[in-house]
């Protein structure tokens, strides 16, 4: 298979690209940084720029002649109080997490239609299913990607093309180093510091990225796709059905406890 993966300069994307390359697939990694690897080809690309995306996809076609799989992995985290987040920070986040992913899908879909086959995996987060404290805009950006994926599934199904979102829990990567950290005003400082330390500890104790690669490998081998798949530790995945089942106030109290938040 020819697989295109975005955000391959580090973290999950790099591990995915090397894993599938080692397993005999032709892998192209799209990232702003050029990364040398014997297992995949890097095409330096800023996926927020439509022209750069089109150029990268054409380069893949010139070398492979087809695109079987797109994994939209590129994204960024953002932490801070909703009140303190600036318009510029919010737009930058959505431009990458949502618009960049949409531009990638738009670029590969004409190719997949011509093939009458293709699969798209949009990497989302378990946190997209709920508004996480001090990660409200990150949750919102991933939730928006979820809804776009749900919509596009209907639109592309006549050509035997499928798409899904893969909601990840905490994965052990360097994401904490690359998050956008907004201003934190005094009223939130003590609470934020406590929650921020907790979220970083969850990442440190997270699932290894290699396990994500193995899960995606099984997903690609399956013909039974649905809109949403969830991967992570049980304590994180269980938060999704609990939100559906529990009364809202009870669920919010559980979330406060999980995030070590005191009710005002």
TrEMBL record:
SUPFAM superfamilies linked: NAD(P)-binding Rossmann-fold domains (SSF51735)
Residues passing through the membrane, by range: none
Keyword DNA-binding part of the UniProt annotation: no
Gene3D superfamilies linked to this entry: NAD(P)-binding Rossmann-like Domain
Keyword annotations of the record: Oxidoreductase
Keyword Transferase: no
Pfam families documented for this protein: adh_short
InterPro entries linked to this entry: NAD(P)-bd_dom_sf (IPR036291), SDR_fam (IPR002347), SDR_oxidoreductase (IPR051911)
Record family assignment: Belongs to the short-chain dehydrogenases/reductases (SDR) family.
Name the record gives this protein: SDR family oxidoreductase
Provenance organism: Kaistella pullorum
